[in-house]
Amino acid sequence: MAISRAAQGALVLFAYCSLTMFMVLCNRHLVLRVSNAWNLVFLQCSASSLCFSLVLLLSRDLSRALRTKETACGLFASGILFTAMLYSNLQVMSLISIPSYIICKNYTTIFNALMQRQFNLKDAQHANVFSVMLMGVGSTLALGLDVTVVSRGVVWVILNVLLHVIFSLYSEKLQYSGKVCPLFLAWSNSTVAIVCVWVGFLLTHASLLESLRRDFFTLHFFDMVVLILSSFLGICLGPIQTLCVSLTTISHVAVTTSLNKIPTSIVGAVIFDTELAFLAWIFVFVALAGDLLYHVDVSTLLRASSESTWDYDMVTNAEE
What we know:
0% strand, globular, single chain, mainly alpha, disordered C terminus, 12 helices
């Protein structure tokens, strides 16, 4: 019996949301086990770079990206931003709770929403004000009530949000220039990240191999399984998201991903034994409700206007 397209889309969306949750939980587990987050960056980017290299060679889709020196410099800058963003992401994940980590991503959405309001999407200015206010107030109060954020993670949270926004805007600029395909950009970012980590170890006169051996060759079997799963998920999430969009719509993917933050926050808090005050949990759900309402509003406007000229990708969150 053939499965309908709607059922296929629902199954793929469920798989994407489940894998996104597993990715967050796996990275949180690993970053608490390793002594240096740079080791995790190096290993995950190595797996991604190898996989993307094979795909590019098999597809024979050697990008047009290196035709100009300007684009080559742009790819290198994108890779540096990607490396810094990935490292700060892991640092934030190691310092604060999963619910706080999830809602701190709301600030990226808020910033992008403000940019859309400033430059585009005039019809949505009033429709999204309430949801943006919910995100901003709920996220700020929830993070303020989380002791771990106040005592250890506030600087890393701010840095991570800034890097996310800058990297998102810069990578989109590269792709829309028409000179870089997304697959080549993903390969370039991962490869530059490997080089950056290696050069960083050289400059500090430390041994990368010794650091990797100390962190990963002493892991228990379960931790090794989680490490392999994390690397695999990092490679697969992008293609699965593309498949979701092809079977449903980008609106469905954005709203479902936003809704998926609720079980991710709860499951993460339970697994890692998070202690948050009752009032903090209330503001966590206020922030998540604002995020969900915002994406529902934007999705409604997107469907209502077939001549929309704004970039919907800028108001969606990427789960690292």
